[in-house]
Amino acid sequence: MITIAPDQAHLWYVFEDRVDDADLIMRYHGLMNGQERARHERFLFAHHRHQYLVTRALCRTTLSRYADVEPSRWEFGSNKHGRPEIVGPSGVPPLRFNLSNSGGLIVCLITRVIDAGVDVEDLRRRAETLRIADRYFSPAEVAALRTLPADRQHRRFFEYWTLKESYIKARGMGLALPLDQFTFHLDAGEPITISFGPKIEDDPRAWQFERRTVGERHLMAIALRRGSGPPLRIDVRETVPLR
User: Fold this and answer.
1) Which pLDDT tens digit goes with each residue over 135-194?
2) In this structure, are residues 94 and 63 in contact, taking their beta carbons and an 8 Å threshold?
3) Range of the domain at 211
4) Which residues, at least 6 apart from 26, have a Cβ–Cβ distance to it below 8 Å?
5) Which alpha helices (DSSP H) does 45-100 contain, by range?
6) Could you tell me if residue 243 is inside a domain?
């Protein structure tokens, strides 16, 4: 088993197209519970079914790296805003996890009891960046985005977007948190910081944010509520579940 300290976060990732072995895929099916199998079958397209299958396998096998629990025995629920959480079996270590996927990449973030969120985006994905930013970003973020040359706006948009998604996922409140009521400050060479509008009660000093890339295509953002302690150490690892 892997030990994860309170001042650590581990991020595991897998590329969907590297899971193409029939026997391995059959083993993934055996890990899911009845509810997961039913949801898997509701996807209309094979790509989405495969993505969901690999996501569930990554989540279950990754958690079992940290506890003496068979991957198929993990039980999950969700809070009132839909954030997935571990509810069983009893006696498991105090772990938190968060999942994200985009453009063929699936990621799973693991911490001990610390609120954590992760978001990944495919930088090749087209988006009406300024229109979306005008609608959802804070005025300061929109202004900062518009000051950039056109060839830099696309990447900066996704930097803001992944950070915002990681924060609301870490809070476990989803879009109950208005996206225009918190602002990320991305000054060159400085740690990423956040500030809040009057509709959000939170302490900006309690949060740690990180940006990571996987190759040239995928951008990830990580949000960690570290409290008053030093920054958490983040370990990033590639895997193929059960291989």
Assistant:
1) 999 999 999 999 999 999 999 999 999 999 999 999 998 878 999 999 999 987 789 999
2) no
3) 8-238
4) none
5) 46-63
6) no
Kindly state whether residue 227 falls inside one of the protein's structural domains: yes
Number of domain units in the chain: 1
Q: Is 66 helix (H, G, I), strand (E, B) or coil?
A: coil
- Give the integer Cα–Cα distance in Å for 89 and 74: 6
- CA atoms of 130 and 136, how far apart (whole Å): 10
Instruction: Using 70 as the pLDDT threshold, list the residues of the chain that sit under it.
Output: none
Examine residue 101 and state whether it is found in any structural domain, yes or no: yes
- Tokens 């924060």, located at residue: 167
Among 189, 187, 184, 188, smallest CA distance to 208 is for: 184
Q: pTM here?
A: 0.95
* Residue 197's CATH number: 3.90.470.20
Distance CA 99, CA 95 (A): 14
Provide the pLDDT for residue 38. 97
- Left if phi > 0, otherwise alpha if psi is -120 to 50, otherwise beta: which for 2? beta
Domain contains 2: no
3-state helix, strand, coil in the chain (%, to 5): 35, 30, 35
CA separation for the pair 219, 221 (Å, rounded): 7
- Among 219, 167, 213, smallest CA distance to 193 is for 167
Q: Is 24 helix (H, G, I), strand (E, B) or coil?
A: helix
Percent of the chain with pLDDT over 90: 89
